[in-house]
């Protein structure tokens, strides 16, 4: 396998020799100032590489030689804490003074400590009852920020002809605006019920949980005319695991431990554009 080492800062030349030795590779090539590629690396060396890279704030990935971005047909992304830096529901809750309470439930759910995502979401949304719906616009305009490298990643995958899917256990208010802003092909999320300009504390229709995310991925792939094995999935929480398991390449982005352990690749330090440097 190729071993791709990435750093958010310029990668010191002093790392080349120890990484080549740890990987038991045949040669090392500096792709650019931030990326080192080691050929013929041994995936069995993953535990030692994990320790070294964690110590030096590096990200590593084993990649099949010759694999290109064009071998894939779709990139699917989670929204909260993946495509964007915030958890929208936590920021909405801040407008009714309940951010800490809601954030604690969100964190436990994403770590996989709350097994029933539907129950978790219903409980959090219920706490928003009576909040003026204008709070959603405030969150989008004032607090929502794209994750580092998001636009560069999307520009490149779209230029390569890949289609894009945003699938979220969050809310359509945000996914639809991001879909338009970023020219995404598909978006699917939960719908908050609003009556007379206020949130009712309820979700309308189907709740987008882990199994629905996986189904949405399959449906988007079918529309594009590819198997799920030609999809790349990026996520951070336990409700992303099912769709990540169906993908040809799964990327855990600044993710919870249970997700990092299951994904093909984990980015703990570099931005979403780290995806481009794998190929």
From TrEMBL:
Its cofactor is Mg(2+). CDD domains: HAD_PSP. GO terms for biological process: L-serine biosynthetic process. Keywords: Amino-acid biosynthesis, Hydrolase, Magnesium, Metal-binding, Serine biosynthesis. One of its GO terms (molecular function) is magnesium ion binding. It is an enzyme of class 3 (hydrolase). Residues 3-49 form the DUF4072 domain. InterPro entries: DUF4072, HAD-like_SerB, HAD-like_sf, HAD_sf, PSP. SUPFAM superfamilies: HAD-like. Belongs to the HAD-like hydrolase superfamily. SerB family. This is Phosphoserine phosphatase. It comes from Trinickia fusca. The gene is serB.
